[in-house]
Amino acid sequence: MSELLYTFFITITAIIFVYIALVCVKLMAKAGKFPSNVQLEATNQKLQQAILNSANYTIISTTPDGIILTFNAAAQRWLGYTAEEVIGKTTPEIVHDKNEVVKVAQELSQELGVTIEPGFEVFVAKARLGQVEEREWTYIRKDGSRFPALLSVTPLYDAEENITGFLGIGSDITARKAAEAALRESEYRYATLAQTAPVGIFRNDASGRCIFANERACNLIGSPLEDVLGEGWVQSLHPDDRLRIVREWNQAIKQNLPFKAEYRFRHPNNVINWVISQAIPERGSNGEVTGYIGTMTDINDRKRAEEELLHLSQALESAVEGISQLDTQGHYIKVNPAYAQITGYTPEEMIGMEWTLTVHPDDQEKMMAAYRQMLKNGKVEMEARAMRKDGSAFYKQVVMVKAYNQQQECIGHYCFMKDISDRREVERLKDEFVSVVSHELRTPLTSISGALDLLASKVVPAGSEDAQRMLNIAANNTDRLVRLINDILDIERIESGKIQITPQACNAADLMTQSVEVMEELAEQGGIQLSMSPLSAHLWADPDRIIQVFTNLISNAIKFSPVGATVWVTAKIPEKSELEKFPTPVILFEVKDQGRGIPADKLESIFERFGQVDASDSRQKGGTGLGLAICRSILQHHGGQIWAESTLGEGSTFFFTLPIFPEEQNQEEEFLHLPHTTPQHPPDSTSPLILHCDDDFSVRAVMQVILEKQGYQVMTVASGKEAVEKAKLNQPDAIILNLMMPDMDGWETLALLKQQPETQNVPVIILSGVTPDHNKELSHDVSDWIIKPPDVKLLCRALEKATTKQQAIKVLVVEDDPDLAQVLIAMFNRHGISTFYAQKGREAIQISQNIIPDLLVLDLGLPEWDGFAVVDWLRQHQHLYHVPLVVYTARDLDESDRQRLKLGETLFLTKGRINPQEFEQRVITLLNRIICN
Predict the structure, then answer these.
(1) Whole-angstrom Cα distance, residue 499 to residue 638?
(2) Do 408 and 447 touch, CB atoms closer than 8 A?
(3) What pLDDT is attached to residue 568?
(4) pLDDT band at 45 (very low <50, low <70, confident <90, very high)
(5) What is the pLDDT of residues 464-498, one digit of tens each?
(6) Which is it for strands 504-507 and 332-335: parallel, antiparallel or unpaired?
(7) CB of 414 closer than 8 Å to CB of 324
């Protein structure tokens, strides 16, 4: 304002001098002489007064004490007072706000370090000191209204530089204040908008350095403001985008062009943010670029949608289901590769093609009807025949969905297509299978029903030969029906994966031996000799399922062989010349018979369901026609193969392979031609101890293997003297003794054993090549006599008899079917075993507490606590947690079920898959072993 005051005085002075000059010129023209000093002084005063009155400022002059001397016209207009009303009065008391004066007095007192009293001195204190006094004040008009003013106070001096008064020049700053307020309001609105905007807002200088960023921008960048400013934002750019964005920014700055790009910021926590950024240049008054202002918008959702759309597009392109889009005229406009492949075309060939070319002529009207229904309902599903490019037909399943544009106008439809030819073929085979099964089930049911009706109605007298024949017919057909149902369930469960194949390490020789032992009784009944050459090699297989394959093949070989024939069961590792046939190392098993043979055209079909050489075989031989199909399914699950070779009139050979462990490939083949035994229960510390004495090392080795496989502990010695010493020391449960030995023979050894108190009660079994004298009874010192080479069954029976302690056996049968329970009780009664019966789970627990059974036969489907709950309860009790258990159920159990059901020694048998004779044999064997232990 001091500059304004200075300009004002200069202007006044210049005007005065110009005016005087003009007056002088005028006077000179009139009188030819200059005016007097009085005239000049009057003129000067008039001029000054004119200037004061014409100025657009309030001009007020005062005495040194603040008495108003001058009050110009502007002051009168703005403040509402006349000059006469204010001249001679003190300024603050007239036009100033007292509170404002007091406040400024306090500020000046602090600033100048002296006390300034509220009054005139507030306005002139700094002017007295020679300082410029310029301050904003509030002027109060006569009517009490107010307006802001900028007041500048200057001292007035006389010729001796003494202050003669003060001059105050004020300007109305109402407009400026309004402009400042408006600017502040605008800035506030801008700041509020910038901070609350849903997009990031930033400003960069002309070099691209950030000078402002709102909170949203900082959040998108992933850094606080102080790290964003300058070039900090560049460091937050994703490494893969940084070079590109810096290059594009520099190019925009260099060319003074707008900037736009999509890029990523990587946050410190590795979160990735996609943004789209746009910025335009800010220009100065001369059009030069002073910086950039821009926005950045979060496009993560859009990028995710684009990525999902890309994945969807890729999925549609790679989908196995055919997908196409057709226009309203029935022309293909989009086709994915699967759709084109199903129809035999390329996608390019199908674009623009009419749909009728891909539909079977006989089904086009059907498709048109479906199309009309789709137009009405928006969607339709159907099945029809389609045509490929090569003219072949196939069945397809079609879903048509109406297609719309953004204006919801129909633009055609989408067609989703699936080739269901395989499903149709499966349905056909299923129908055929059901038909065959229906026939196979009804045939034995008819025989059973007819035979039992004759007996029940007493048409056939009870006890007669006809009655017995009817019973035999019913029993045989029942067995046939059970086998058929089991086979059907087996093959369905195996192929559907519902039966768990549980592979484990097992020995091929053991599996072969067990299988042959199971079939020995059937072979004996048929007058067939079984010959086995097992191969000792390790397999990774489910032993139960592989034994099922063996027994199926051996059973067929026995049934189709004449009396006196031989069935051979062998195994080998293929020769090097044969290895090309097999992609992996395998064992090749063979089951060979001397039967009637199989025609060449039947060698493949016999492995299909109900595939038999002769339809009468199922009735005459008792088969179901499913055994070989089951074998193939089991072997396929093991990675093996099965096939047959045959010569009519000479016999057939069935081959199958199983993969072997890789470490077995280079092992030397080991053949053991002595009988193997079932590896049912490995010996433990509670198993009976058998002392075997024989001077032949190979015999001792083989016998040790046989006995240990039966669950016995075995100790071998080579002489009679050693046998006596070891028997006294170890107290065996039985001794197997050879007779023909050097030094001390078997008889001498037997005599010494019976003389010693420690061994005199140990049963002794003679195992010798010498045949006993059948005309004489065995010595009471000999428990049994077995001829070399031993029949394993006879040897095991002799050992069971020798090691069995006479005691009362208690068996608890838990079965909710009372008829089946009576059958089981009758079986145990034949063996002199005490039997107890419970029909419910809770009842089974009560009886178990009372009798502590030696064996529990348990069904799982029980009322009032099922079998699982019974076992869980028994496990909690000290005297019952080790009870031996036979789980006899119709349910298929997986490994977790078996683990839940284990008590003591546990045997799992499935109803319907084991006949009563097999059940009896296995349970009694278990009981004998329990007694021995």
Answers:
(1) 13
(2) no
(3) 94
(4) low
(5) 887 888 788 777 777 767 766 776 676 666 666 55
(6) unpaired
(7) yes
Number of H helices, E strands in the chain: 31, 32
Q: What is the mean pLDDT of residues 839-844?
A: 91
E strand segments, 696-795: 713-717, 734-737, 764-768, 784-787
Cα–Cα separations (whole angstroms), residue 631 to 143, 268, 286, 641 = 119, 62, 95, 10
* Whole-number Å distance between alpha carbons of 769 and 799: 18
- DSSP, res 52: H
The confidence score (pLDDT) of residue 318 equals 59
Phi first, then psi, for residue 905 (nearest 5°) are -65, 125
Percent of the chain with pLDDT over 70: 82
Least confident of 110-119, 263-272, 698-707, 799-808: 799-808
Pairwise CA distance, residues 358 & 386, whole Å: 6
Residues belonging to the chain = 933
Residue 850: band (very low, low, confident or very high) from pLDDT cuts 50, 70, 90: confident
> Per-residue DSSP letters for 708-734?
HHTT-EEEEESSHHHHHHHHHHH--SE
pLDDT of residue 677: 38
The residue among 3 and 196 whose pLDDT is bigger is: 196
Q: Do 302 and 275 touch, CB atoms closer than 8 A?
A: no
The b/e string for 861-893 (b: 16+ C-beta within 10 A; e otherwise) is ebeebbbebbbebbeeeeebeebbbbbbbeeeb
- Find out whether 619 and 473 touch, Cβ atoms under 8 Å: no
Residues 6+ apart with CB under 8 A from 801: 783, 784
Question: How far is it, in rounded angstroms, from Cα 149 to Cα 154?
Answer: 16
- Residue 907 belongs to what H/E stretch? strand 906-910
Cα gap 841→869, rounded to integer Å:
8
Looking at residue 669, its pLDDT comes to 35
For the record, the structure tokens of 429 come out as 């085979």
| Both structure tokens of 285 | 């008054």
Whole-model pTM: value is 0.36
CA neighbor of 473 nearest in space, from 438, 491, 448: 448
The sign of the dihedral angle between the CA atoms of 484, 490, 493, 495 is: negative
Asked if pLDDT for residue 767 goes beyond 70, the answer is yes
Residue 490 · residue 632 · CB < 8 Å = no
Task: Give CA–CA dist 258/245, Å, rounded.
Answer: 13
What the block records as the tokens of 929 is: 């072993």
Q: Alpha-carbon distance 838 to 823, whole Å? A: 14
CA separation for the pair 387, 363 (Å, rounded): 10
Is 695 in contact with 531 (CB distance < 8 Å)?
A: no
pLDDT in tens, 319-333: 568 889 999 999 999
E strands, 756-884, in order: 764-768, 784-787, 810-814, 834-838, 855-858
Query: What's phi and psi for 335, nearest 5 deg?
Result: -145, 125
